[in-house]
């Protein structure tokens, strides 16, 4: 016997966003922009922190800011704020 399943229409899907918290980080020097480098990600404070967040299973995203060569890191969580010691580069604010 085949089991039938109803697909839920996209307009009926629900997402729980109540309680989502976030924090934005950018580079604390050079006018809030990270250093202009074309080196490995391990040398970029934003990208290094992004990699560490992924390794810590934190929901995060980095993006370029409106200023040229600027980046910012966004971290999202639900409930208690995660311990970010050792995750976020010391030059980020």
Give a quick precis of the structure.
By secondary structure, the chain is α+β, with helices and mostly antiparallel strands. It has 1 helix and 3 strands. The protein has a 3-stranded antiparallel sheet with strand order 1-3-2, covered by helices on one side.
Write structural notes for this entry:
Its main location: nucleus. Keywords: Nucleus, Repressor, Transcription, Transcription regulation. InterPro entries: Mediator_complx_sub13. This is MED13L isoform 5. The chain is built from one helix and three strands. It is of the alpha+beta class. It has a domain of 61 residues. The protein has a three-stranded antiparallel β-sheet with strand order 1-3-2, with helices on one face. A hairpin with a 6-residue loop joins strand 2 and strand 3. The protein starts with 19 loop residues before the first strand and ends in a 15-residue tail after the last strand. The relative contact order is 0.25.
Main β-sheet description: 3 strands, antiparallel
Mean pLDDT: 79
Rg, nearest Å: 18 Å
H-E string? EHEE
Number of strands: 3
Number of helices: 1
Structural class: alpha+beta
Strand order of the largest sheet: 1-3-2
Q: Which geometry do the CA atoms define?
A: globular
Question: Level of helix content?
Answer: 10-25%
Q: Quote the distance from N terminus to C terminus.
A: 59 Å
In what range is the share of β-strand residues? 15-25%
Task: Give the low-pLDDT segments.
Answer: none
Topology readout:
Blueprint: E1 20-26, H1 45-55, E2 59-64, E3 71-78
Antiparallel strand pairs: 1-3, 2-3
Main location: nucleus
Family: Belongs to the Mediator complex subunit 13 family.
Protein name: MED13L isoform 5
């Amino acid at each position: 016997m085949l089991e039938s399943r109803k697909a839920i229409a996209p307009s009926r899907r629900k997402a729980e966003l109540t309680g989502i918290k976030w924090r934005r980080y950018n580079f604390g020097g050079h006018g809030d922009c990270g250093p202009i480098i074309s080196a490995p990600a391990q040398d970029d404070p934003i990208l290094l922190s992004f990699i560490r967040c992924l390794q810590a299973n934190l929901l995060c995203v980095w993006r370029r800011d409106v200023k040229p060569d600027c980046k910012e890191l966004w971290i999202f969580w639900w409930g208690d704020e995660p311990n970010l010691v050792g995750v976020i580069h010391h030059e980020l604010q």
